[in-house]
Write a structure and sequence with these properties.
It is a single chain. With 456 residues, the protein is mainly alpha-helical. Helix content is 61%, strand content 5%. It has helices at residues 15-21, 24-27, 31-47, 53-72, 84-96, 109-145, 165-190, 209-215, 225-230, 233-259, 287-310, 323-347, 353-361, 367-376, 381-397, 407-413, 421-424, 427-432, 442-455; strands at 150-155, 158-164, 192-193, 220-221, 267-268, 350-351. It has a two-stranded antiparallel ribbon. Strands 3-4 form a two-stranded parallel ribbon. Strands 5-6 form a two-stranded antiparallel ribbon. Helix 8 (209-215) links the parallel strand 3 (192-193) and strand 4 (220-221). The protein is elongated, with a radius of gyration of 30 Å. The two termini are 48 Å apart.
């Protein structure tokens, strides 16, 4: 394909240089945005009498046909083209002749690629948000079914206090709500049109950048042309938001991997989202969760690659910035793939409530409640803490649990103990008396589910 920029140079680069310079293999994703941007540009040129109305109509009709042909498969993208912008313009010119050459008036590939990328990523933001909402809905459904399912809560991966499985699920739902907020917030700053900034200094033509921005659904325009073509903050922001989302999915994956092991056996993942071993017939591997955990590092790499690429670039556009797209496209595809597999994995997961309750009964996770019992009887907390710890030590030494200690033994440690202590350290009581907002009681969790559902 002939180089559209031939003139100052012969346009004859080596095959190796062409392949190295070309971005068509990845920026071809933006063909729809590129064509729609060009249609709006043609309308603006006509509105400002820079080209005739008739020429604009020919351009818009031809661009629309190219888009239809690409969508239907009647036209294939030429992977020998330098980039998607040159491909579309070359096809356009081949089809309508010299009128096609008028389209690039008052713009550059520098502002054109910035426009296409913002348009493309706005759509990606919307899709990632919807997929995240689907996962949150799956979490809410599991929480609704397990409001009274008691499990051990952990700190330092040591059994700490009793919580409900619903409470644990809603913790991840809250994380994902923040992820949605971050992505939406990122989209706000992304929704600024750079078209009309041209190469770096604007244009001598009397353009209407606001008209073009409105046609393409942007809230505003870049107010400095140097910044407009060189800004990739929106890529960094989006990569950062996706990295945090992936981090949350990875943490969740780690717990699912632990919980589905024989050592925990808290949940059973559906056969549809696990694999077997090629040599060990008893194995059921949580490969989907492990892959999500592994792909998180890949997205972190995308973020770091983009930050590193940008850190030494002077204004305005530099070819280094071609490296932005592979990273952000990869991160978007990765997180979407992870979300698509995660939601049904949670929906089809079986909760093994009896195993959770058994684990909760064996870890002295009601020791804090035992101390609180004494505090309510008038003992200072630190004194109550010491007595409770001493009783736990006694139980460990004598291979018993707090619930099975006779009252006489309790009274050896404090005369404040009475028969009502057994009700206070019952795990169901321990959970449901945690009535503080955000706590693990059934009532509190119901409020959390309601809040999350209202916010999605």
């Amino acid at each position: 394909m002939a180089k559209m920029w031939a003139g100052r140079t012969s346009g004859e680069t080596s095959k190796i240089a062409d392949d190295f310079n070309s971005s068509i293999r990845f920026d071809c994703k933006m063909y729809e945005q590129d064509i729609k941007g060009s249609m709006a540009h043609a309308l603006m040129l006509s509105k400002q009498n820079i080209i005739t109305k008739e020429d604009a109509e020919v351009l818009v009709e031809a661009l629309g046909q190219i888009l239809d042909d690409l969508n239907s498969g009647a036209l294939e993208i030429d992977m020998e083209a330098e980039d998607i912008h040159m491909f579309v313009e070359q096809v356009l010119t081949n089809r309508i002749g010299d009128v096609g050459k008028k389209l690039h008036t008052a713009r550059s590939r520098n502002d054109q690629v910035a426009l296409d990328l913002r348009m493309y990523l706005k759509d990606e933001c919307d899709e990632i948000v919807e997929l995240t909402k689907t996962l949150i809905e799956a979490l809410c459904a599991q929480a609704q079914d397990n409001k009274a399912t008691i499990m051990p809560g952990y700190t330092h991966l040591q059994r700490a206090q009793p919580v409900t499985f619903a409470h644990h699920m809603m913790a991840y739902a809250m994380m994902l709500l923040r992820d949605i907020d971050r992505i939406k917030d990122c989209k706000k700053r992304m929704n600024v049109s750079p078209i009309g900034c041209c190469a770096l200094a604007g244009t001598t033509y009397d353009t209407d950048r606001y008209f073009e921005a409105k046609e393409l659904g942007f809230d505003s325009i870049a107010l400095n042309s140097l910044d407009g073509v060189s800004d990739r903050d929106f890529c960094v922001e989006m990569l950062s938001a996706i990295a945090v989302l992936m981090m949350h999915l990875s943490r969740f994956s780690e717990e699912l991997i632990l919980w589905s092991s024989w050592e925990f056996k808290f949940v059973q993942l559906s056969d549809s989202y696990t694999t077997g071993s090629s040599i060990m017939p008893q194995k059921k591997n949580p490969d989907m969760a492990e892959l999500v955990r592994g792909k998180t590092g890949r997205v972190y790499g995308d973020l770091m690659a983009t930050l590193t690429m940008l850190k030494g670039i002077p204004l305005a556009y530099n070819k280094d910035m071609q490296e932005d797209k592979e990273s952000i496209f990869d991160a978007c595809e990765t997180v979407k793939m992870c979300l698509k597999v995660f939601a049904p994995m949670i929906e089809t997961m079986t909760v093994l409530a009896d195993n959770m309750k058994k684990a909760a009964s064996e870890g002295f996770i009601n020791a804090t409640d035992l101390a609180d019992y004494l505090v309510k009887k008038g003992l200072p907390f630190r004194s109550a803490y010491k007595i409770s710890g001493s009783l736990v030590a006694y139980c460990i030494e004598n291979k018993t649990i707090l619930e099975d200690l006779p009252l006489e033994k309790y009274k050896e440690y404090s005369e404040l103990f009475d028969t009502d202590v057994y009700g206070d350290i019952d795990l169901n009581t321990c959970v449901n008396k945690r009535i503080s907002v955000g706590g693990t009681s059934v009532e509190s969790v119901e409020m959390q589910i309601k809040y999350v559902k209202e916010n999605i």
